[in-house]
Amino acid sequence: MKSRFQTSDRVRVLHLGKTGHIRTPFYVRGKVGTVSELCGYFLNPEDLAVGKTAGPVVPLYRVSFRQTDLWPDYQGPAHDTLCIEIYDHWLTEGQEAS
Amino acid sequence: MSHSHEHGHDHDHTHDRGHHPSLVIEDEAGNIEGQIIIDALQNILVRKNLLAPEEVTQEIEKIEAPGEHLGARIVARAWTDPEFKERLLANGKSAAAELGIKVGEAQLIVVENTEDLHNLVCCTLCSCYPRSILGQPPSWYISKAYRARTVREPRQILSEFGLNLPDDIELVVHDSNADMRYLVLPERPTGTEGWSQDRLATLISRDCMIGVAKANAAA
Question: ipTM score here?
Answer without folding.
Answer: 0.95
